[in-house]
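The methods section describes the discrete structure representation at length, but only in general terms. An entry of this sort, consisting of the sequence and the corresponding backbone structure tokens, reads as follows.
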Amino acid sequence: MADETIYEMIMERLPPDVADSLTLDQKSALLSACKPVSWQRHPVNLRLTFPIGRERYFVTLVSGVERRSPERRVRDALIYPVMTGGNMLFLLGVGLALCAATVLAVVISSHLLHL
């Protein structure tokens, strides 16, 4: 969906008196806010969903050149700390899965060598 289309949809949903009261600068700022965020354009952008029981869980991995300012990195570190229980459980699960895959690969390869 084009940025202008999103802008037009928002403008149509605003009450007419509010839309008419917006200045040119406000309309320009609103159009700018409708543009996609830059993090969606990183070279690595994986979004996976896994059904577990009745729930669906997602994992997102975004990687690329750091573009955030030092101030924003500090703020983000406070808002989204790395050392949380959920993050530690996730990393433990990934580590165990990698270990299990390695052991399985070694067992299969040694079995195939002895055939």
